[in-house]
Write the structure tokens for this entry.
Amino acid sequence: AQTVTQSQPEMSVQEAETVTLSCTYDTSESDYYLFWYKQPPSRQMILVIRQEAYKQQNATENRFSVNFQKAAKSFSLKISDSQLGDAAMYFCAYTLNTGTASKLTFGTGTRLQVTL
Amino acid sequence: ETGVTQTPRHLVMGMTNKKSLKCEQHLGHNAMYWYKQSAKKPLELMFVYNFKEQTENNSVPSRFSPECPNSSHLFLHLHTLQPEDSALYLCASSHLDRGTEAFFGQGTRLTVV
């Protein structure tokens, strides 16, 4: 079975600084997708960024980028120029590319605090 | 209207009650999901529906009964729950496609007393 591990229960970053959230996963498959979701106090999971395993290029979305190391099974999220609105729980997730429903396996999350 | 809407937002029920959670999506998706989010645990996938057909039940106790009358609506019927069932229940939807991201509702915070 696939597992996703987030080893940082909490992280803190100053506004305008950069922070990196860690994620490792375990799978014997080669074709899969990885995601970072953000869950603010409103509780709604919001997709931050997506990475396709067969693409070597790291995904980027504005201030958010990932460092995808397939051999090491590592998928970290870098947030640049942190803003107060970035404060939330961040979840790393995995889904196998089966061509059917996207069933996600989540990590336990990292709570990000942004300070002035 | 937002993409995925869940009602109610909060629910308190006794162990002998029967209640239902509702989820509605307006995104034209054809797959819907129920997830359970408990404190300090990863989100757990409970049920998956593809085109109204249940394709996955992750060993969920029978006191949770899903229903998917059409591709836009998903229900979770609850009866004789236990206090340990208290959690945030999240509904999600996606296209039935490879790796397409899931869109989530805001969840129902359930407390069983």
Summary: Chain A touches chain B at residues 4, 32-33, 35, 37, 42-47, 50, 52, 91, 95, 97-109 (CB under 8 Å).
